[in-house]
Amino acid sequence: MSANLPTGQFYGATQRRIEAAGLVLSEVTHRQGRKLPEHTHQSAYFGLLVEGGYTERFTERTTEYGPFTLGFHPPEFTHVDEIGACGSRMFCIEVRDQFWSKTREYLTAPKFTPDLCGTETTWLGVRLYQIFQAGMLDAFQIEELCAEMVERCGQASVSCERSAPAWLDRAMELLRASFRGPITLEGIARELDVHPIHLSRVFRKKYDCTMGDYVNRLRVQFACSEMSRGWPALNDLALAAGFADQSHMGRVFKGTVGETPARFREFLHDATQNVA
User: Fold this and answer.
1) What is the DSSP letter of 36?
2) How many whole angstroms separate alpha carbon 198 and alpha carbon 78?
3) Is-contact 131 137, C-beta < 8 A?
4) What pTM did the predictor assign?
5) Residues 123-180: pLDDT tens digits?
6) DSSP label at 56?
C-alpha cells in the first residue's frame, strides 16, 4: 500500500524549509543510495536535482535523473524512487491548494512532467534555489517565480498534447545526443530528411525556443552538472560542454543562470559545505 506524504515531508533529511504564499520550499538530502517505498505526495511539487542521481518509476516508465534536471508531479501521484549510489540533494517546491485556489483562473495547471531538461522552467527553479540558499526569499518573490514556473510547465503540457510530426521527437534525441560536439541545423535536418527551414519553424512553434537556444541550455545544464561533482577548470569545461571557448560559455551561462560560471561554481561549493 502506498504511503501518502503530507506537505513538507519527504524521505531523506530535510536540511532547510521555508513556507510562504501557499508554497513550501525544502532542501532534501540522502547520504547514500537506497530504494524508497511506493508513495504519493499530498501536494503538487517541482523537484530540482542539484547533486547525485536517482531513478523514478511510475507504471511502466522509468526515468533517470541527473544533476540540474527538473520534474513536476501533480498531487497524489504514485511513484517509486531509487536514490543513486552516491546519494542525492534535491530542492523541492511544493504547491499547496491555497496557491492553486488563487491562481487556477490565470494559470494552466501542468500535468506530470518527469524531465524538463533544457527548458526555461528548469532555470527559473535554479534561480529560486540560489535565492533560497542565500536566505533572501520573501513571499512576493517566491509566489512570482513559482507562478511563472507553473505557467511555463503548464504551457509545455498543453503543447505536448498537440499533434506534431513524428520526426520532431527524433530531433530532440539527436540534439541531446550531440550538443557537446559540432552541430548544425543542416546536419540535423539531413538526418531527419526534412528541410532546415521547416525543421527550425516547427521546433520553435512546438517548444517556444529556437534549436540554438535549446542546445545552449543543454550545454549549460551539462556545465552545472560537472560543477556539482567537483571544481572543473572553466576553460576545459567550456570545451567539454560544446562551447567555442570559455568566453562563449560565460556569456551564455550568465544569460541562462543569471551568474557567471565562476560565481555559480562557488555557490555550489558553498551550498555543499552548508549541507555537510
Assistant:
1) P
2) 39
3) yes
4) 0.87
5) 999 999 999 998 877 888 888 999 999 988 887 766 555 567 889 989 999 999 999 9
6) E
